[in-house]
UniProtKB/TrEMBL annotation:
Catalytic activity, as annotated: 1-(5-phospho-beta-D-ribosyl)-ATP + H2O = 1-(5-phospho-beta-D-ribosyl)-5'-AMP + diphosphate + H(+)
Name the UniProt record assigns to this protein: Phosphoribosyl-ATP pyrophosphatase
EC number from the UniProt entry: 3.6.1.31
UniProt gene name: hisE
PANTHER family: HISTIDINE BIOSYNTHESIS BIFUNCTIONAL PROTEIN, HISTIDINE BIOSYNTHESIS BIFUNCTIONAL PROTEIN HISIE
Organism: Aristophania vespae
InterPro entries: HisE (IPR008179), PRib-ATP_PPHydrolase-like (IPR021130)
């Protein structure tokens, strides 16, 4: 059995994929995607800002909730852009063991 299929983020990704062509009246994911990439990005940005505000305020429970919203909207962006979670995991694995300072410096070369 593929252990990634058991991960909640993979299940969420699979759900969003399955709703891509659903009726926007019946699916929030379908509604977001029907409104286009700009709206998806706007919603992701709004949720990210809300997450930052809760972190600054030290509101742990709200930060948890907003973090879940950020991850959901990020996954909707991935689906819309044709990105698979494995693409992200591979990039994270590539960076693993490299300091953040080294990794950032390598991007500017």
């Amino acid at each position: 059995m593929d252990k990634n299929k058991d991960h909640v983020l993979q299940r969420l990704f699979d759900t969003v994929i399955s709703r891509k062509d659903a009726s926007p009246e019946l699916s929030h994911s379908a509604r977001l995607m029907s409104r286009g990439r700009h709206k998806i990005a706007q919603k992701f940005g709004e949720e990210a800002v809300e997450c930052v505000i809760e972190a600054i305020d030290g509101n742990k429970e709200a930060l948890i909730s907003e973090s879940a919203d950020v991850l959901y909207h990020l996954i909707v962006m991935w689906v819309d852009a044709g990105i698979e979670p494995e693409n992200i995991w591979a990039e994270l694995a590539r960076r693993e063991g490299t300091s953040g300072i080294e990794e950032k410096a390598s991007r500017s070369q």
